Amino acid sequence: MPGGYRVNAGRVSARTKKGHDMKGFLIDTVNKTAAEVEFESKLETYYKLLHCSTIDIAMRRVGDRTFDVVCDDEGLMLDKPVISAISKNCEPMLVGSLLFVHHDAEGNTTGLSDDDVSYLRWHVRHVRTVNDPDGHPCMTGVDY
Q: What are phi and psi of 20, to 5 degrees?
């Protein structure tokens, strides 16, 4: 499925003809899932995965590790933003769907290791908020 993604057995994949997929960890606030994803690092794929039309990449710590977080640049402008990352003191850090990745020395996006994915999965909790009383996955322990 060039340039798109699909859910298959709990995983979201973004496949391309060239097969240059990398591994990330996606908090999807629309589908209320948190899962390892394989994707091609291109703008259109980020828009589809994050359900948005503009992105930003923020560097954040989760516990004692640092990650790049691809997020909706206009997430706070929504009528009811969904908190998707909180600090160890339960302070809101980010809203909307989030994609956790790394970068290399040149600043290019790189994928996560299996250990990174397990680490992030351990930090996900199901939270309920005013804007989402049924709850959704949220990354915890996030800091600047």
A: -85, 60
Residue 85 · residue 123 · CB < 8 Å: no
pLDDT digits (tens, 9 = 90+) for 2-30: 333 333 333 333 333 344 689 999 999 99
CB 119 within 8 A of CB 65: yes
Bridge pairing between strands 55-62 and 33-40: unpaired
Report the distance separating Cα 120 and Cα 36, nearest Å: 9
Tell me the HSE value of 3 on the side-chain side, using a 13 A CA sphere: 3
DSSP state at residue 87: -
Q: What pTM, to 2 d.p., does this model score?
A: 0.85
Q: Per-domain residue ranges for the chain?
A: 6-143
Helix (H) or strand (E) holding 95: strand 92-95
CA distances (Å), origin 84, targets 21, 116, 131: 25, 18, 12
SS3 label, residue 80: coil
The secondary element (H helix, E strand) that includes residue 118 is helix 114-122
